[in-house]
Amino acid sequence: MSDQTAGERPAEQLDDFDRRILAIYQHDTRVTGESIGQAVGLSAAAVQRRLKRLRARGVIVQEEARLDAKALGLPTTCIVGVDLEYERNQHVDEFKQRMREHPNVQQCYYVTGSMDFVLVVVTRTLQEYEDFTREALMEHPNVRSFTTLVSMDTVKSGYALPLSDLNSRPNSCSSA
pLDDT-derived band of residue 29, with 50, 70 and 90 as boundaries? Predict the structure, then answer.
């Protein structure tokens, strides 16, 4: 097996066992190696070794608890399209860093098209969202404009990837 950095086409190096393990593990990281092993036909030790290798290679990026925003008093979710005034590397990098640091920004995507960024922002109220826009967007000297979509219902949310037929599909869009 060759040494590669994360993001250098790791899917091509995944075998069927890796994909089957990840298909289970990505939905619940508390599943035991023994349970996964029984489902995929490997020993618990082999599953743990593969998970360790997948973490080291950067295929498994992070394992975290998924919390219910509404249960924690954050029922307002807004999807925000942001258009920057200046798009030089330093301006884009500075905006990325500000969004990484803002506690209300749950997700931030640098995108192509009619806007530069798409944010997912959670707040307790619409008033708190307005406060966010004033502080993080309106007062930011490089934000030209922004558009807000207020989520009425979360129909699907998550990071699970379609792993079952990873090698049989053409690569139509690669990610950075």
Answer: very high
* Gap between the Cα atoms of 50 and 82, Å rounded: 40
What is the C-alpha to C-alpha distance for residues 55 and 59, in angstroms, rounded to an integer? 6
Per-residue b/e over 67-85, b at no fewer than 16 CB within 10 Å? Answer: eebeeeebebbbebbbebe
- DSSP-derived pairing of the beta strands 143-150 and 117-123: unpaired
Using pLDDT thresholds of 50, 70 and 90, give the confidence band for residue 70.
Answer: very high
Task: Say if residues 106 and 98 touch (Cβ distance below 8 Å).
Answer: no
Question: Buried (b) or exposed (e) across 112-123, using 16+ Cβ within 10 A?
Answer: eeebbbbbbbbb
For the segment 90-148, what is each residue's pLDDT rounded down to a tens digit? 999 999 999 999 999 999 999 999 999 999 999 999 999 999 999 999 999 999 999 99
pLDDT score at 3:
43
DSSP string, 124-176: SSHHHHHHHIIIIIIT-TTEEEEEEEE-S-----------TTGGGS---S---
